[in-house]
Structure formats: structure tokens, C-alpha cells
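Q: Got one fold?
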Amino acid sequence: MEWLGDHWLDVLGWGGSALLVLSLLQTRVLRFRALNLVACLILVGFNAFVGVWPMVGMNVVLAAINVWFLVRLSRERHDDEVFEVVRVRLDDAYFRHVLRTHEQDIRAFQPDFGTRPDEGQLAFVVVKGDETVGVVLLRADRDVARVELDYVTPRYRDFSPGEFVWRRSGVLRDLGLRRVTTSPRMRGAYYEHVGFRRDGEEFVLDL
């Protein structure tokens, strides 16, 4: 503790710099902005204490930019105008490309999914503008659909694009579906936050 008391300023400066570097390694856009903001605020304090005012000014501007992006991104998380659900054919070339590109990441979250769709499934791509946010595969039995794939790309994993499939897009009700159930082997499930109820090891949504 005595050493820390003598070197707290060095710890503050190096800690802020390390956090800044760590933020640049993030693939999730919200996490990147949040960590970068904290790093900038730490470096504002450090540089103000040692009197390096150009660095203070730069980090104040960067902090303000991060705040602006965080506010904007937080608003977009639940904005109907931002995300769109597009139904695609199972043999759609781009859809297959997305599955191949993210195959290893998909299996990390859903080890029982082989990334090879077959007949009888319904396929959807969630997009933001021209950027792919995620993909969903359902297997329908009359008016009940079972989730066989619900994947979000790393960049958008702090968002909740799935809610636009389940609650807001209306695309499932338009297909005559009235209930959605999930796989018990799905990892990192978020369904309780978007209207599903737990039923044993599964989640169920009444449309």
C-alpha cells in the first residue's frame, strides 16, 4: 500500500492507457464505446494533474464523442426503424455465406446446430441497413415454431435484435404461428428479457 501511495499517479496513467488499448480490442460496439469513455475520463484526470493540457483537451473531446455514440446506440437498441427482419430461402447464397463465415462462433453458442439448413425450416436474416446483424432458423409444426438457430454477430451482441423477430416485426404472426419454443441447449439465452416465459429447460413465447 505504501508503494501505491507513492506511485498512484503512475498507476492512474498506465491504467488509463491500458484500458484505452483494451477498448480497441473489443468487437462489440457498445462495449468499445463504454470502455473507451472510461479510459478517456481517467486520462483527462491524469493529464490535468501533470499539466499536459493538449492531452486533456483531446480526451475531453473523445469522451464527448463516446457519450454521443452511447446515447445514440442506446436509443437504437429498441428502435423499430433501425432493424428489419427479412425472410430468405434456405438455399439463398448470401444466407449460406453468413452461416459458413460464422460457423465456429455459432457452434460455440449452439453446439447442436450443424450450420446446414434443411427442408421444413423457416429462415430469417436480421439487418441494419445493408449490414447483417443476425440469423434465425425456425422449424414450424402447424402453429408452433421451434428455434433451431438464433445467432447475433459479435458486433451487435450488446443489442437485442431478436426482439424484432419475436415481438415487433409481425413476421411470425403473418405466417400463422402462435407459439415459439427454444432449444434447451442454447447458451447465453436472453429470452426472458424479450417476453418469453420459462417452461422447464425451455423458453416459450405466445404470439
Observations:
- The chain has a mean pLDDT of 83.
- Residues 142 and 165 are 19 Å apart (CA to CA).
- The radius of gyration is 22 Å.
